[in-house]
Structures are given as C-alpha cells and as structure tokens.
Design brief:
6-stranded mixed beta sheet, 16 helices, alpha/beta, 477 residues
Length: 477
C-alpha cells in the first residue's frame, strides 16, 4: 500500500508486539496472541512477558526493548498500573507508531488520580508520535489481513463491505455475532472499538472509513460525542457517498446517565442527536438487530427510486402485518397498481387471490405455487408506479422452500428494483434463506423487519436526492 497514514498502523501493521502475552488461557494476553495465529494474521507477532520463554510456539521477549525487529503496533494487555511504564518503553524504541491500551481503570472511573494517569500515558505517546486506542479498549479487526487485536468471541472473518465503529466492545462483538448468524454470514471489512477515546476518537475513525475503499457501509454503536459540530461536518461528507447507520443509545434520562458512566462519553439530549443525524443524512436505528438487518440491506440492495411499495404475499396474516407496519412508516406507502397490472395479476393467479384490496396489496393465497410467485413478482416489477416490493411467503408442505428460492433467484438477481424477501419461518425456510443470501439477496425474519429497513432506505434516497438538487441549484446559479 501507499505511505501509511496514522490509523493505517492500527489496521495494517507489518508487525506488532503483545505486551502482557501469556500462556494462561484465561488471560487477555493469551487470547490476543491466539487470535493472531488462529486467524492467520499476515504480519509478525512478538509476545512480551519476562516470565515466559515461549507462548503458543512463538519466542517470547522479556521487554519491548529486547525485540530486535521493527515494531509498528503495540498491544498493551497489562494492568493499568503498568501501562505508563510500557508506553515509556514504546516511546524509547522510536519505531512504534500505534498502541492499543486494553486495561480499564483510567478516566472512565472519574477518579482524579486515574484521570491524571490516562493523561500522562497519552502525553508520553504523543511525545513519541504514537497514536493511541483506549484505554479501556479491545482495539481493531481487519478482514483484509486477518488482524484481530481483541478478546471478542471468535467469529468467522468473512470479508464484506460493512465496517463497524463501537463505543462498547461487548456491543461491537455482539453485532459481529448477529452478522455471523444471518442465513449466510454478513461479511465485514473493519471493526474498531475506541474505549475512552484518550487520543483516537470515533470521529477520526469515521473519517478514516469514509476514505477506505473496502468500506461500503458504516455501522456504528454510539454512546455520545464530544464535538457535535465536527461530527456533522465529517458525516455530511461521508453520507454523500456511503451510508452511515447509527445505533445511538442513552435515549431516556436514565439511559443517558448509564451511558455517561460507561466510558465517560457525553450523552447529551436525544432530540439534539436526532436533529444532527437528520441534518447530515445519518440513518438512525433503535436496536442491535435492526442495525444488523439495515446494514445487510444497504450492503446488498439498490436503493428504491421512490416511496411506493407493493406488498406481495402468499399468506394473509403476515401480509396484514406488513401493511400495518407501513401505516407507521415515515416514508414508505402502498403503490398504485395500473388497471393493466390488475388484469395481468387476475389472469395468472389462483381465482381466490385478493388483488389490490387495498391498492398495492396482493394476497396470492396459500394455493399459490412456484409459478404464481414468479409471475406475480415479474408483473409487480414491471409496474411503473412500484418502486420496491415486499415479497412474503410461508411455503406450505407441498411447496418446498428451497425449490421456490431456486426459481425466484434469477428474477431477484436481475431485478432493477429492490425486493425485500421474507420467508417465514424458522428451520423450515432456513436453507432457502441461506441459498438466497449466498447469492446476494438479503432476506428478513419478519414482515415488520422488512418494512422498517425499507423505510430507512427510502429515507436515504430522499436525502441523496435533496443533495443532488442542492448541488444542481448551486451549479445553475
């Protein structure tokens, strides 16, 4: 790669040292080294522990100074009382560019002496040109070079276009687990936990992801910001070219207090965050599962060109759930179906099918076989006033789900409009959903999930349209 920028040394280090490496499986220093070996990290790893000669087959060094090779990244996995001494050793080497400080027990405690200790650690790092993640931090992952500095539960390093920023290691790790347990694992590019943000903060990582070619979608778990104006400035640049999806917690008064006590982040008024997100085109979600499904849809589907939705369902109840959810949507609404479209639906569907009651809603009934699903989907896609489709099916025993998915796949892959596929439910449709997702077609557990995600995508399309109109107005002025 080209000459490295500051944060490249966290995500693309040629070499790293793990200070506090251990042969004890219950220690963070053991897990970090094991991650590097298990996942096939492509750089050099140097364990550091004066009590050990070898760790997991690697030569162990008594100190940072005793490592004869160049070290770019240092992972500091020792108690907080020893961190300053390790940082002084890193500074003395002259070649260390980045450090991840795993230990807690610093500014997040609000104890004056520990706040002062954190400042001293960062001052030593800055004097030597070392950038710092943390303290109270598990660091980074990068699927492009199989880097994992964390102690998060192991997940498959599936490459993809979603990059994650988190102010909680546990929530960030849980997001990866949710992504992994999708019918086909949703891949990711980079992952970063910032901890106390004593040096590198979420805004710097957000800006880095905005310039990162591997990152197509940014997903963030946020507790609070220190500089809202700078966030808006950075986010506006990024959302113009790629989606930024944020789960912002601390919405209630009591939640805001819990947020402040976690990492010392400034929670602030939730209404202020809402306004800021709307201003800069951020997509806000309310819970972790929604962050997962929304990131999946943005990574895999084209944006709807408008707000008009056709609900195409094989089962009445789930179809009503979808229409009911549309009633609460901010942007999505049922589409108008042309008279010619209604005629085509009537010709190809079972006689008991309910066509456009209400307009834009089609219940093709449980009598529908594969050909009925296919014909109805093709007709809906051809309707000029339909911008997107929610396709719901609960395949009965006489309609094997995998067979249905195989037949739908060519149409779905070639569709110019986004189709939100909901196969219900559980193990009966698990293999069918996996087949679709392995071929780039996202699926959704429930009709409500599909509608909520679709509404977020329409919101983004409207934001981009507004940007384009503003830009055109400026160029014409």
């Amino acid at each position: 790669m080209a000459a490295k920028k500051d944060l490249d040394y966290f995500f693309y280090p040629d070499s790293l040292a793990v200070v506090g490496a251990s042969n004890n499986p219950y220690k963070a220093g053991y897990q970090i080294v094991k991650n590097m070996l298990d996942y096939g990290y492509q750089g050099r790893v140097y364990p550091v522990n004066p009590q050990e000669d070898q760790i997991l087959g690697l030569t162990c060094y008594p100190s940072l100074q005793s490592i004869p090779e160049t070290i770019e990244l240092v992972i500091i996995a020792v108690p907080s009382s020893h961190v300053l001494g390790v940082m002084q050793q890193a500074a003395a080497r002259g070649d260390v560019k980045a450090a991840v400080v795993v230990a807690a027990g610093f500014a997040e405690t609000k104890e004056p002496e520990l706040v002062a200790l954190e400042k001293e650690v960062v001052a030593v790092a800055r004097s030597a040109g070392i950038r710092v993640f943390g303290p109270n931090c598990v660091g980074v992952m990068n699927t492009r070079n199989m880097l994992d500095t964390t102690i998060e539960p192991p997940v498959a390093k599936t490459q993809g276009g979603v990059s994650i920023i988190t102010q909680s290691g546990a929530m960030g790790g849980s997001l990866l687990l949710f992504m992994e347990e999708q019918p086909a694992p949703l891949g990711y590019a980079k992952w970063a936990h910032v901890g106390n943000m004593s040096d590198v903060d979420v805004l710097e990582i957000l800006e880095y992801y905005g310039q990162d070619a591997d990152t197509k979608v940014v997903a963030m778990y946020m507790e609070g910001l220190r500089d809202g104006r700078k966030f808006i400035e950075i986010a506006q640049k990024i959302t113009a070219v790629k989606p930024v999806i944020i789960l912002k917690v601390g919405r209630s008064d009591i939640g805001s207090k819990a947020t402040a006590s976690h990492t010392g982040a400034l929670a602030g008024s939730d209404l202020v965050y809402d306004a800021a997100f709307e201003k800069c085109g951020v997509t806000r979600v309310s819970y972790l599962e929604e962050l997962t499904t929304t990131a999946k849809a943005f990574a895999m589907l084209p944006l709807p060109q408008g707000e008009n939705v056709c609900v195409l369902t094989e089962a009445g109840g789930p179809g009503i759930v979808a229409v009911d959810e549309l009633g609460f949507a901010k942007h999505a609404k049922l589409a108008h179906i042309s008279e010619e479209g209604k005629r085509k639906f009537k010709e190809c569907l079972p006689p008991m099918a309910m066509i456009c009651h209400p307009d834009g809603y089609l219940d093709i009934t449980a009598a529908a076989m594969t050909e009925h699903h296919l014909d109805a989907l093709k007709i809906a896609l051809e309707e000029p006033e339909v911008d997107s489709i929610i396709l719901i099916t609960v395949p009965p025993t006489f309609l094997p789900p995998v067979e249905l998915a195989q037949n739908l796949l060519p149409v779905l892959k070639n569709a110019a409009k986004p189709v939100f596929v909901c196969f219900l439910a559980g193990k009966w449709v698990e293999e069918a959903r996996a087949l679709l997702e392995q071929n780039g077609i996202p699926t959704f557990k429930t009709p409500s999930d599909a509608v909520r995600v679709l509404d977020k995508m329409i919101e983004r399309k409207k934001y981009l349209k507004k940007l384009a109109e503003r830009k055109e107005g400026v160029s014409n002025a």
